[in-house]
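On clarity, I found the account of how folds are encoded harder to follow than it need be. Since the whole study asks how a given chain folds, the encoding of that fold should be made plain. For illustration, here is how one protein appears when written out as sequence plus structure tokens:
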Amino acid sequence: MTTKGHIYVIDDDAAMRDSLNFLLESSGYKVVLFDAAQGFLDALPGLLFGCVVSDVRMPGLDGIELLRWMNAQHSPFPILIMTGHGDVPLAVEAMKLGAVDFLEKPFEDDRLITMIEFAIRQAEPAARNEAIAQDIAARVATLSPRERQVMEGLIAGLSNKLIAREYDISPRTIEVYRANVMTKMQAGSLSELVRLAMRAGMLDD
């Protein structure tokens, strides 16, 4: 069954979590509930891209500290902050730290859904780019030290013969390494390998 996206609700109020769970699942979202920000952060490495809906005032790590942590990690997950009445200064601070928007409790269901749809739509391109970058980095990590050297030689524009001379091995052996590099990096051509190297930060100015 396809979903409209993943939503991660963080609130220490069990009644609020249950209410949001019902609303968001009824609207077609896959919902995961957390009663504390630390629990969410512990689970984050294994979570699929989605929108975070977090209360601002919570015991332990609060919504503001959560935003600071997500900022420091350059997380692509968009965050909506829920605030109590009179918490506008906190909401403003949350926005400065990168929250997409804030809602004052109690809020209308339709407004929350509209904001979630906007937040996901706005953040998806960055999340896709981040996923691609991680995938390329994972490919680079599969290269042996020698394959990495050969790849660096190739993207520097060196011929097989020059790379072979650089490392005092035969051009024939370089051809084998080159084939391994192209396979592991999933590159169909040298130009594609260069593009992948750029995305992996191997061609920094």
Summary: The longest helix spans residues 109-141. Residues 142-199 form a domain with the Arc Repressor Mutant, subunit A fold (CATH 1.10.10.10). The chain has two domains: 6-131, 142-199. DSSP finds nine helices and five strands in the chain.
